[in-house]
Amino acid sequence: MPHFVIDCSENIIEIKSPQEIIQKVYDTAESTELFKKGDIKVRINPFKYYLTGNTQDDFIHIFANIMEGRTVEQKRNLSEKIVKELKLMFPDVPVISINIRDFEKATYCNKSMV
């Protein structure tokens, strides 16, 4: 917990390595101090087949799933920091975005909890 799932056009991982991209998102999320060190999980899904606004323009979108309890301001800060860092990393990519969803603590379960 938390989970950052990066969806992107396949070309993105030709510009920078998947590990570089994953590490940038990880480091940026960690820098916010909203999460315990070592708890952040990041994955990447490059897509060969997609449309963005009926084009084949490159894109990066992150689905961030975090435990409830953070303020709107904290989540806004997290979103803006990640997009800012990716924008620096990929200045020519026209679509870079993120959305944050809260997990409900009452319904979350993992292996160590059962």
From TrEMBL:
It comes from the Bacteria. InterPro entries: 5-COMe_2-OHmuconate_Isoase (IPR004220), Tautomerase/MIF_sf (IPR014347). Keywords: Isomerase. It comes from Marinigracilibium pacificum. This is 5-carboxymethyl-2-hydroxymuconate Delta-isomerase. It holds the Pfam family CHMI. GO terms for molecular function: 5-carboxymethyl-2-hydroxymuconate delta-isomerase activity.
